[in-house]
Amino acid sequence: MSHTPILTIRNLSAVFPDNNGGLRALDDISFDVHPREFVCVLGPSGSGKTTLLRILAGLISPTSGSFMFGHGEQPSIGMVFQQANLMPWRTVMDNIKLPLEVISMDSQTARTKAQDMIELVGLQGFEDSLPRDLSGGMAQRVAIARALIHDPDLLLLDEPFASLDAMTRERMWTELSRIWQARQKTVIMVTHSINESLFLADRVLVLTQRPGKVKLDLKVDLPRPRKDDIRYTSHFGRLARKLREAIE
Amino acid sequence: MTKRLTPILISILSFLLVWHLITRYSGIPNFILPSPLSVWTRFLRAVDDRSLPYHTGITLIEILLGLLTGVLFATVVGYLLAKSRSLERVLSPYLVASQAIPVVAIAPLLVIWLGEGILSKVVICALIVFFPVLVNTIVGVRAVPIALYDLMNSLHATRAQILWKVEVPASLPVFLGGLRIGATLSVIGAIVGELVDAEEGLGFLLQLGDFQYDTPMVFVAVFTLIALALMLYGIVTMLERRFLGWQEK
Q1: Which of A41, A213, A220, B106 is 20 to 30 A (C-alpha) from A97?
Q2: Which residues of B touch A58 (CB under 8 A)?
Q3: 3-state helix, strand and coil shares in percent for chain B, rounded to the nearest 5
């Protein structure tokens, strides 16, 4: 792993206007993210996790502080939301192609790339299906494929599996882990599940209750590739306990 | 297809039969309630002497031009109003007030101002079409999920890309609902204009038939109008099938 960070976040704060002096969502957050690192941001609801992600995606501006990407310019971003957020009028293929249309890639190349992504997320045979015909897990896999297709510098995941049932969610962890290893992306993922963060991340940042501050920065030194049963090892248990204690 | 058409066909045939029986046995004179057969012969004659195709063509042009102008303005204004709350606050009193004035009531005024030619009819038609399309455009654009804007913004999409790839397709179902109402109303608009004063068009033909106690002609004109309205309705339905297939189920 390289030691020049791809993302440097310094003293980031976010205050939303409200009736009594503003609602402070994030308070003085600072951390670095290295290339190809999988970072999970863990925290209770209302700790400003999503706000952090939205700032990094450029959807909102921070009130103070700064964040800078390694090469100094606006990075390309792939984002996966809590809901799959697919366009209901587009087929699986066309939903996945969307980011390539935005950068005006020619349609033939785009199709080939989308086909590769469809295979990566295991949706062969569903190219022409509409979102209404997909299960929650399948829809979220389309969303992941869409977030990866334009080969973004940074992948931002906002509780992507929160809306899935427990079984599907755990299967998606393995899937995401495999995809991440295949594509070698820098990932920042927001979650409120300790298991999820330990299963997936190289590093877990724990935020406090609002206003969110970084309370713990924990390195997850579990070996990869991680299998389902890693959750029953004693080391996993120790890490989980540290995270649990950090979350109020 | 035959399965869907059969009940419609049966319904039309029984309607004609009942109508025929009423005119045959009730003793109502033909100039008050003409028989279906006399309407049919009048129709053939009107086609033959080219009066029906000619006047239908005029009305159709008025409707299409009115519909086009009305929909165009309503879509542009509706989109701007949907995107700007302050613009909406400034304009909405006028828009609501304009709807409080029945277009039918100001139709004579418009004919005085714009003349008895085609222009006044096009304007009346456009005015009647404007409001339902406007309202549905606003509702449709406002209903575009915010999450899709987030998605497009995270991809650094341009304004134009957001318009064509998100706003247009997402608001299309509601917009076409408005167009469906507008298309039906456009026929009324053109006819109201023609009834006020016109030298040509189905409204003129209708009035001519009325003055001359040529009641079968009045019926022919009315049925032609119904056919026009159904045709427009059918076109909108086709558009919905073509563009909103993803919604079905």
Answers
A1: A41
A2: 153-154, 156
A3: 85, 0, 15
Q: What are the structure tokens assigned to A47, written together?
A: 């700790």
Indicate the number of domains in chain B.
1
User: Per the structure block, which two tokens stand in for B85?
Assistant: 């709350």
The nearest alpha carbon in chain A to B154 belongs to: A57
Structure tokens at A30: 């600072």
Amino acid, single-letter form, for residue B136: N
CA end-to-end span of chain A: 32
Structure tokens at B37: 């057969």
pLDDT in tens, B209-231: 999 999 999 999 999 999 999 99
Rounded to two decimals, the ipTM of the complex is 0.89
A77 to chain B, closest Cα gap in Å: 6
Contact B247 A101 (CB under 8 A): no
Closest partner CB to B147 (pick from A76, A85, A132): A85
List B residues 186-215 in contact with A (Cβ-Cβ < 8 A): none
Structural domain count, chain A: 1
Residue of B nearest to A102 (CA): B157
Question: For the segment B24-58, what is each residue's pLDDT rounded down to a tens digit?
Answer: 998 888 888 999 999 999 999 999 999 999 999 99
CATH number, domain with residue B63 = 1.10.3720.10
Chain B interface, best mutation among A92, A102, A105, by max B CB count within 10 A: A102
For B225, the domain range is 57-243
* Structural domain contains residue A21: no
